[in-house]
Design brief:
By secondary structure, this protein is an alpha+beta fold. The protein contains 9 helices and 10 strands. It has a 6-stranded antiparallel sheet. Strands 7-10 form a two-stranded antiparallel ribbon. Strands 8-9 form a two-stranded antiparallel ribbon. The protein starts with 5 loop residues before the first helix and ends with a helix. Residues 1-26 form the signal peptide. Its cofactor is Mn(2+).
Length: 287
């Protein structure tokens, strides 16, 4: 029996219908109800309400199902969120493999002038297939969003491990550094310069292998000016090479190698070689 406020009227409909069948077996319309409504009208009103509610639920469930699925991927929990994007865990419904989907809002990307940066990141990652670089599976889009499907890496950031332990043993640091150099050397061989290498962008998989991530600030060799150098100042201040902040042009490969040296120092020492709360003072130390 439906919940209130239909319960009482529904009981009256049932009682009137039963009475009609017993006494005259006449049409249901001939049995009046308190308030002057016929059983058919009461039942019709109730049925219309119920059907409307069920249609709403069906549309709602269909809408949720669409939002929980992108292409062949079933979306799960949010595992990361930033100003312009969020990253959600997802599962490939065909293979069952886990992936991470970076979801970008197109309106925000256009508003903040990030179109070229996103395009560059996607194009760069399409050039790279290496065991120590987070893999790009595919890119999809809708009217409002961009979906970048990436390899799902579960071991966390190298930064978190060092923050918890203070420093690494030499053998462990050597293993991570070798994997980092292998990945960076491969990128350079493909004409790709990361330009933001730091501990936070080095992830670990379940086997403890290092994975380089986040190519949002990367450059390719074709972006070099007539002098053969890159001229965009970018990167994280603590890891950036001196020539990058001198605004005279720099070699992308050498700038990446400087950042690798800073990473090696932190792995062994447990702290940054250049650090200051004031960015200007920090740059003076780097120079």
């Amino acid at each position: 029996i439906p919940p209130s406020p239909f319960r009482t009227r529904w009981l009256l409909v049932l009682a009137a219908s039963f009475s009609s069948l017993l006494v005259s077996r006449g049409p249901l319309l001939s049995v009046p109800l308190p308030g002057g409504d016929s059983p058919n009208k009461v039942f019709g009103d109730w049925l219309e309400e119920r059907l409307t509610w069920r249609m709403y639920k069906a549309r709602r469930q269909a809408s949720l199902k669409v939002r929980r699925r992108v292409g062949k991927y079933e979306l799960g929990r949010t595992i990361g969120e930033g100003t312009f994007a969020k990253v959600r865990f997802a599962k490939d419904t065909e293979s069952g493999d886990p992936v991470a989907i970076k979801i970008l809002d197109k309106a925000k990307v256009h508003k903040h002038g990030l179109v070229e940066q996103i395009r560059r990141e996607i194009c760069t990652m399409k050039l790279i297939q290496h065991p120590n670089v987070v893999r790009l599976h595919e890119v999809m889009g809708s009217k409002a969003r961009i979906f970048i499907v990436l390899e799902y890496v579960t071991g966390g950031e190298l930064h978190d491990i060092i923050a918890a332990r203070g420093s690494l043993k030499e053998d462990e640091a050597r293993r991570y550094f070798q994997q980092l150099i292998n990945a960076v050397d491969y990128c350079h061989s493909r004409g790709v310069y990361h330009r933001d290498l730091k501990l936070e962008n080095l992830l670990l998989d379940t086997a403890g292998n290092l994975k380089v991530s986040d190519f949002g600030l990367s450059a390719i060799s074709e972006q070099a000016k007539a002098d053969g150098l890159l001229h965009t100042t970018c990167g994280t201040p603590n890891y950036v090479a001196p020539e990058v902040i001198q605004d005279k042009g720099y070699n992308g490969a050498l700038a990446d190698l400087w950042s690798c040296g800073v990473i090696l120092f932190v792995m062994l020492a447990g702290y940054l070689p250049f650090e200051d709360d004031n960015v200007s003072a920090l740059y003076k130390k780097v120079r």
